[in-house]
């Protein structure tokens, strides 16, 4: 399993990487738009915080496969081959996924809402398929069923793609995705914190301290 941080906020990334077993960062244009610097600076700052084995997923913004390819080439020059180029699964996106994958570039097929889109992206050569769990649910879909079906198909097929479950709004969605066959998730910082917390843990820690101090101090 890999836990990625779905954010470009440098303070959150630094803090969470220190505490949790984080394996990289995913961004998209909306995530970059939340930060208060130029996108190039934000991406460079995030990159500096990553370890050499960490994954860095950056999304292209162009409309045509040709322009997506140009964006990807520029990103690769700056961020190296461990970069994952996130490509939304529009028709031009599928063209770009085929093209980039055939050149050995890591591609994350993103904005995936149906199992069929996921299968096509895996066949096109994507390394990761990113279903948007919460957004699937806002379109009355079932995120858990999506992950179960696509992970079953991936296990039966010879394609190398893995699921990178994304777009979470609560920790139950994350748990369900992980238990349904997604081994990699990208999680916004507040939910990474929430995944680790429980009142019972805090009460337990307080109780241990109190018991020890009343007995021995
Ligand atoms: C990550 O790869 C996705 O772009 C992201 O999780 C989308 O999340 P949202 O639905 O909260 O925008």
Overview of this protein structure:
By secondary structure, the chain is α/β, with parallel strands linked by helices. It has one domain (2-216): Alpha-Beta Barrel (TIM Barrel). Helix content is 54%, strand content 18%. Strand 3, helix 4 (65-79) and strand 4 form a beta-alpha-beta unit. The longest helix has 18 residues, at 199-216. The structure holds erythose-4-phosphate.
Ordered list of secondary-structure elements with their pairings:
Blueprint: E1 2-6, H1 10-19, E2 22-26, H2 29-33, H3 39-49, E3 55-59, H4 65-79, E4 83-88, H5 91-102, E5 107-112, H6 115-124, E6 128-131, H7 133-138, H8 143-156, E7 162-165, H9 171-180, E8 184-187, H10 189-195, H11 199-216
Parallel strand pairs: 1-2, 1-8, 2-3, 3-4, 4-5, 5-6, 6-7, 7-8
The chain binds erythose-4-phosphate (E4P).
Using the coordinates above, name the CATH class: Alpha Beta
Task: Indicate the structural class.
Answer: alpha/beta
Give the neighbour order of strands across the main sheet.
1-2-3-4-5-6-7-8
Note the total helix count.
11
Mean pLDDT: 97
Number of domains: 1
Summarize this structure briefly:
The protein is an alpha/beta fold and 217 residues long. The chain contains 11 helices and 8 strands. The protein has a single domain (2-216), classed as Aldolase class I (TIM Barrel).
